C-alpha cells in the first residue's frame, strides 16, 4: 500500500471511528465506510475516464459551429448547399402553387 493510500485509509478510519464510536458495530460500520469511500472514488474515476473517452472519440462534439467552420471549411459549403436546396424547394412549391391557381409566373 503506498503512503498516499495508507494516509487516505487512516484518515477514513479515523473519521469513521470518531463518528461511529468504538465496538463491534463500529468495526462493521468502518468497513462499510471504507467500501463506500472506495466506491465513490471509483465512480469519480470512471466518470472522468468516460468523459475523456467521449471527447477523444468525438472531438467535434464540444466545438462551436464557428470553430467547426474554421477547422473544416468544407462543412460550410455543405450547410450552404443544404440551405440553398431548402430555399429552392420552397420557391418551387410557391411556383407550383401559383401555376395551379392559374397565375402567370415569371412575366412582368
UniProtKB/TrEMBL annotation:
Q: Which residues cross the membrane?
A: 35-55
Sorted alphabetically, the keyword list is:
Membrane, Transmembrane, Transmembrane helix
At the top level, the lineage of the source is Eukaryota
Which protein is depicted? Uncharacterized protein
Amino acid at each position: 500500500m503506498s503512503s498516499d493510500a495508507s494516509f487516505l485509509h487512516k484518515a477514513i478510519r479515523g473519521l469513521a471511528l470518531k463518528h461511529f464510536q468504538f465496538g463491534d458495530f463500529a468495526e462493521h460500520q468502518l468497513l462499510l465506510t471504507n467500501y463506500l469511500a472506495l466506491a465513490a472514488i471509483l465512480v469519480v474515476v470512471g466518470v472522468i475516464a468516460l468523459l475523456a473517452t467521449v471527447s477523444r472519440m468525438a472531438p467535434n462534439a464540444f466545438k462551436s459551429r464557428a470553430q467547426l467552420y474554421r477547422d473544416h471549411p468544407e462543412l460550410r459549403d455543405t450547410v450552404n448547399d443544404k440551405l440553398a436546396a431548402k430555399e429552392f424547394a420552397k420557391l418551387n412549391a410557391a411556383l407550383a402553387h401559383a401555376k395551379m391557381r392559374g397565375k402567370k409566373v415569371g412575366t412582368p
